[in-house]
Amino acid sequence: MTDGILLPTGHILFINGAHKGSAGGFMAEDPVTQPLLYHPTAQPGHRFTKIDARTTIPRLYHSIAQLLPSGEILLAGSNPSQARDSHYPTEYRVEIFTPPYLESPHDRPVIHSSPAAVKHGADFELRVAQTRSGETKVRLSCGGFRTHAEGMGQRVVELEVLVGGHGGETVRARAPRDASVAPPGAYLLWYVVDGVPAEGKWIRVEM
């Protein structure tokens, strides 16, 4: 029941679910309200951290989480039981969860312009603004579609940065080499400075 969301920072957010029981059969209880953040490049034993911010609504069986262009996470659903008098009835409310990177005191970078489409292996430019220097990354993300705690088609692809990214206004990056890395379709383009992403811009990856 837990949803794993690939974030534009390269981390994975684990959110929703329950501490006890199992999915389906009305067997889940003790909802998880404190998300976990997974750091894939950290030393073993130090890769998971608890996030101080908590969710407020139980999200059990058939709940979903989805990354938005704002960098926030949309949370919805949960119907472990059809009975209205159940302790965890079908949930119709929607939440927006704010990941830690949006709580940073530093101003977010901004993507002023970016191409609407790019072909595999092609170089492209984006115009950016940032108020501080730091490690810069350009990434693509695809949210795919979600059900039963699975994000089918979900992926984050880090792009090669050829020019810029250190306080300059123009950044040149290279699109994924082929469909084995990024199948053709719609993606969110992210510009990340010192672990803080700009708002994502839609871009189409083509053959």
From TrEMBL:
<dbReference type="Pfam" id="PF07250">
    <property type="entry name" value="Glyoxal_oxid_N"/>
</dbReference>
<dbReference type="Pfam" id="PF09118">
    <property type="entry name" value="GO-like_E_set"/>
</dbReference>
<keyword id="KW-0732">Signal</keyword>
<dbReference type="InterPro" id="IPR009880">
    <property type="entry name" value="Glyoxal_oxidase_N"/>
</dbReference>
<dbReference type="InterPro" id="IPR037293">
    <property type="entry name" value="Gal_Oxidase_central_sf"/>
</dbReference>
<protein>
    <submittedName>
        <fullName>DUF1929-domain-containing protein</fullName>
    </submittedName>
</protein>
<feature type="domain" description="Glyoxal oxidase N-terminal">
    <location>
        <begin position="1"/>
        <end position="101"/>
    </location>
</feature>
<dbReference type="InterPro" id="IPR011043">
    <property type="entry name" value="Gal_Oxase/kelch_b-propeller"/>
</dbReference>
<dbReference type="InterPro" id="IPR013783">
    <property type="entry name" value="Ig-like_fold"/>
</dbReference>
<dbReference type="InterPro" id="IPR015202">
    <property type="entry name" value="GO-like_E_set"/>
</dbReference>
<feature type="domain" description="Galactose oxidase-like Early set">
    <location>
        <begin position="108"/>
        <end position="205"/>
    </location>
</feature>
<dbReference type="InterPro" id="IPR014756">
    <property type="entry name" value="Ig_E-set"/>
</dbReference>
